[in-house]
Specification:
Number of domains: 1
CATH superfamily: Glycoside hydrolase, family 3, N-terminal domain
Distance between the termini: 43 Å
Strand order of the largest sheet: 1-2-3-6-7-9-11-12
Number of helices: 12
Largest sheet: 8 strands, parallel, barrel
Shape: globular
CATH architecture: Alpha-Beta Barrel
């Protein structure tokens, strides 16, 4: 298989997509709202994808809660944004952590029921005043200790439900003054401050199986390349300073923060030390370009990929209806405050 994760265009595979998946052998599939008509058709899409690649390949989704959830009414509940757990944490630390773990456990139950086994959450980004609102109330708080604690609880809840978490956006998107979907953010904060804040939030989570990079330039460390394509950031910061040991995937290489062709972007991410290329938009010409640039999954990247999948465990028992009622009662009246300490 090749070291990339692909999207597809719609709720059912086209003939061209079936041939592409068979020929290119992506490691995994990521699904978005455009792929979701109803639970049954989404399950068929996932099952067909796995049948084509011939293995229990990982299927990913962004299901954080709040603004970032690809599954929602009428078939799935709406979950609160990360800042809601932070607000509850401020009232009572243990209650906030228990709510984050339970919310994630319920999300995992929703995902596992349709065959999705990887959630691109939690985020450990630490926002600062004046930053772009792309993170905003997705963040659990504004201090690294609080963010790491809630993110850890959320990750544990996903794993309790048989779903792998993806830690993002390493080494931090909280200071970015631009949305990396639209343009390249540049953070000028000195490294000492970054080590104590942004990077510190990720260190307690460094043992999680999967992580995703940030398309952000940290000019005090690498004045040119964003983290995704920076050898210095990937090796010196993510692997060494933060100590992240899991499989590292790029954020979506089709985002406007990156420059160059799709082939150049994909190759630069791999050369910097990313194990896996993520491409999301389902555009066939771009998918073909990324697949051509993606290496065979082998070596350290292959070992980390295998270790991540080996960490999947069967979901523990849960009375979903009872625990869901308990969860939404717990969260009732909780007002998320973006960036609260």
């Amino acid at each position: 298989m090749r070291a990339f994760i692909t999207g597809v265009a719609g709720p059912a595979l086209t003939g061209q997509e079936r041939q592409f998946l068979k020929d290119s052998e992506p490691w995994g599939l990521i699904v978005f709202k455009r792929n979701v008509a109803d639970p049954q058709s989404l399950r068929r899409l996932i099952d067909e994808f796995r049948g084509i690649v011939g293995r229990q390949a990982p299927v990913l989704i962004d299901q954080e809660g709040g603004r970032v959830q690809r599954l929602g009414p009428p078939y799935w509940p709406s979950y609160p944004p990360g800042a809601a757990y932070g607000a509850l944490y401020d009232r009572n630390r243990e209650t906030g952590l228990a709510a984050a773990r339970l919310g994630a456990r319920l999300i995992a139950a929703d995902l596992a029921a349709i065959g999705i086994d990887v959630d691109c959450a939690p985020i450990a980004d630490v926002p600062v005043p004046g930053a772009d609102p792309i993170i905003g109330d997705r963040a659990y708080g504004a201090t690294p200790e609080k963010v790491a604690a809630i993110a850890g609880a959320f990750a544990a809840g996903l794993m309790d439900g048989g779903v792998l978490p993806v830690l993002k956006h390493i080494p931090g998107h909280g200071r970015a003054t631009a949305d990396s979907h639209e343009r390249l953010p540049v953070v000028g904060t000195d490294r000492a401050a970054l080590e104590l804040t942004d990077f510190a939030a990720f260190r307690p989570l460094a043992g999680l199986p999967l992580g995703m990079t940030a398309h952000v330039v940290f000019s005090a460390i690498d004045p040119v390349a964003p983290a995704t394509t920076s050898v210095t950031i990937v090796q010196d910061v993510i692997r060494d300073s933060i100590g992240f040991s899991g499989l590292l995937m790029s954020d979506d290489v089709s985002m406007a923060a990156l420059s160059g062709s799709l082939v150049e972007r994909a190759k630069a991410a791999i050369a910097a030390g990313c194990d896996m290329i993520l491409h999301c938009n389902g555009k066939m010409d771009e998918m073909v370009a990324v697949a051509a640039a993606a290496p065979q999954l082998a070596g350290d990247a292959g070992r980390r990929a295998a270790a991540a999948l080996d960490s999947r465990r069967p979901a523990g028992p849960i009375d979903v209806a009872m625990r869901r009622a308990e969860f939404f009662k717990l969260m009732a009246g909780v007002e998320p405050v973006a960036g609260s300490a």
